[in-house]
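The freezer alarm interrupted the setup, so I double-checked each line after restarting. Inputs confirmed:
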Amino acid sequence: MKPLEILVIGGVAAGASFAARARRLNEAAHITVIERGPDVSFANCGLPYHIGGEIPTRAALAVQNPQSLKALLNLDVRTGCEAILIDREAKRVLVRDLAGGNESWLGYDALMLAPGAAPLVPPMPGINDPRILTLRNLQDMDRIITAMARATRAVVVGAGFIGLEMAEQLCHKGLTVDLVELQPQVLPQLDAKMTRLLESELSAHGIAIHLDEQLTGFTASEHSVQANLASGTALNADFVIMSIGVRPETGLAREAGLTLGARGHIVVDAFMRTSDPAIYAAGDAVETTDRVLGGAIAVPLGGPANRQGRVAADHLLLGDKARPYPGSVGTAIVRAFDIAAGLTGWTEQRLAKAGIAYGTVTVNDNHHASYYPGAKPITLKICWEAESGRLLGAQATGGDGIDKRLDVLATAITAGMTIDDLCHLELAYAPPFGSAKDIVNLAGFAATNLRDGLVRRVDELPDDPTTQVVDVRGQALAAAHPVEGAVNIPLTTLRQNLNGLDRDRPVITLCTAGKMSYFAARVLSQNGFEVSSLSGGIKANLDPRVPTKV
Amino acid sequence: MKPLEILVIGGVAAGASFAARARRLNEAAHITVIERGPDVSFANCGLPYHIGGEIPTRAALAVQNPQSLKALLNLDVRTGCEAILIDREAKRVLVRDLAGGNESWLGYDALMLAPGAAPLVPPMPGINDPRILTLRNLQDMDRIITAMARATRAVVVGAGFIGLEMAEQLCHKGLTVDLVELQPQVLPQLDAKMTRLLESELSAHGIAIHLDEQLTGFTASEHSVQANLASGTALNADFVIMSIGVRPETGLAREAGLTLGARGHIVVDAFMRTSDPAIYAAGDAVETTDRVLGGAIAVPLGGPANRQGRVAADHLLLGDKARPYPGSVGTAIVRAFDIAAGLTGWTEQRLAKAGIAYGTVTVNDNHHASYYPGAKPITLKICWEAESGRLLGAQATGGDGIDKRLDVLATAITAGMTIDDLCHLELAYAPPFGSAKDIVNLAGFAATNLRDGLVRRVDELPDDPTTQVVDVRGQALAAAHPVEGAVNIPLTTLRQNLNGLDRDRPVITLCTAGKMSYFAARVLSQNGFEVSSLSGGIKANLDPRVPTKV
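Predicted 3D structure, all chains:
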């Protein structure tokens, strides 16, 4: 029997995973991997950390090379080769050797497209200055390291995941960093209040943050490049990192007539097949299904890319045993200095925009037992479907244990769990690891209390003078860190001081974290008051660093 | 209307949670809490850590006291009071003031029994020596601290969760520690091989471990107490900690004629009601439902106790809005020095004993991206229902990220997820937090590979000389840390060396972690060999500390 000819375009995450799995399933196949760049299967998520010096050796990022892939997996890897045309009829791809310029046709029985996505670089004045850099591969990284060697000032444009990682790492290297973001918040993927701790952490490390700022172009001079913002601000730097997003590299797929989605991604079915059944696609260039609420979603991250490549190989070679790619919930995390923040599923802003009826609550607690040394605060926000209580999204921020809570909630969302289910998740508890009631349980408690009408929530303090704002923190703490317009009645004295409040006017209770204010709201509502609690407390709404003790 | 009389017996985890929730749901009720000891609502899980000095102040463990519970929750807390009789007919409890000896009846509309569990102290010669101690409350802790002050040697009997924590903490304090365990492994709650890393960590810190040893009694002398083991070993110590388990304190419930389970626990329904509808029970004294495979289960841990107390209060006061306690999956974790180990759901030994048809696999990986500094190895074992692939249990051990994987898998088990579902959990990934393919995904991959017949597993090397054992690690590593009886053919040269193996004899492939040996098994099986891979590799089966590099 003639061996199967498998051709893979793109040899990093999705392409490499596909090729490796294909080999494990079929020793006899000819598997050829075409990669435009000089490297395959490198650790692209690690690039910022080598720039900042946390990963000391460049070699640590080069996970595999053509020789090792030949030895381990008997793959025919051709770097420096670009696929320039797909002839679907004849099942062949025209490949150009970028060094020699030679072109040749490679035939295939099955083709995998894993071209990835390129950093967005929009046309604007001065954009072609060589000091304006992006970060996608090891060569980009090398260019940034070279630029950094004689630099003192950098501008990072875009405060998403890569932008934040780059700002942090450049700061580690002693550079003065300006961070520019079009939206009025850093990490626009999250709800605004959930990013304030991150913002405060970046500022505390000297990064100058420019929010709500449109970049209009660059002005070059001999010794610097100047980023011009619509507000009139001009930022001078030795180099600029553009990290405003990525666009899928789908020119080849488009020219081949494969079906593309609304935003230019390759459309695939649940087995990663394109509109041509002999052609698969996976990774940053494709759109898949939103596992939470359906619809198309593009998730340009390493995890999905690797798993999609594996699914495609299974479909090609395992037949009936192949299982579909179930889609993505959109889990992501970023660390900046001592703070992490991330999300899974949908945010409140996304739900509101889509007109979906949702509930939401924000809770605060420590990442492990408060009485055990080293406990660090976490803020956790969850969103659920109003009618069913099904969990739709979660966001978390804090100093430790953020990844754990996101992972638990990503699993819960994937499983279709409800806010009731969160109450009784039985998570690993010993004082160094968690709490008898983990913050995930607390989120379930708070959500079901809202659903059951035990408490009403607000997430801002009204300007309205008829509302009585009651700060139920202890006297000393409330005096040291007062909230404007609030009267302090500590929870411990509330029952004795009910007559100091006007039963005919609405009350909002508040405290540091939103727990004592809930307790107070229960006391007040059972005593005839119309009362709401500030959900998530001062910490989530007013000041993410508010002290919990005097 | 006459306010509801709510009486709570036991004021620590379940009792305190019940009382607090009851108050939030009903401001008017009279809520009385009877506690035999001098303290309520203390952090019992923190006791070992104050003994060892990690939690420096005793006050950190006293979370609440009668005064603070009065002020915060208007609870009538009576410490030093013991309930000695329940008169169910008249709905009243006879309470004795332990200081004065006065007895009085307290009436109730609803009664909560939260008496907890006491450390097991079996009758044996010399057991009443005052230097033989247990750890349940702050007074026990104080006694241990006093004993420690003039001690240099301690014996800890029982290597379960508390025993391991105590051994670690006593070691921190500079004591010479002997740890005695009846079973042939530490942490008998886990499968034996999953405890070897923990055992090696304890030994590395100088703890002398005596496994498979039956304690027969004690011999007292003026300056020491001697623990006598059935093997003839005698261990001298200044004091002994007995930590061989707990028994539910259900004397009161038994005398009141409430239904008890096979092992003496109070039987409750899904709303924590005992056989008397006016009496609830929660915490270490009750048995609830095993969420994984049904049947009765007693889980004497703080998390379930707190949540059970809350469910009971909801049932009493929320009516239709109350949701049942869904039972327990049995999640637990322990840390000893730099190693953690834990489980959720069922172990292989339990499944085998119960005659349930299961699959199992063990995988190894780092807790975050290997190329990012500080990556620590994890070993993860999962078990699933053979027919359906439904996840039934997970165990993990390693230096970091153990709690996270257990929590994800506890959530997955609770949701009824299968091994296919694990493949596509989308967990938070950035190099400091995880891997593009997390070890949880890898466990799913390995399990489905087994299920789909892509590989066969063994978990020990046969004595049988007809089997060819092939070590596929690199030459230098295999030479530096050889496996007896194995021939070294590095994976990278395997395809060229097939003729060096006998096609008529079975092959077992092995490597450090079980991944390369799987790759090798795929090569060999497609070349006509009958081959199995050592599941979990050398690390999981032969040596948990085997180096991964020369």
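Quick read of the result. DSSP finds 16 helices and 31 strands in chain A.
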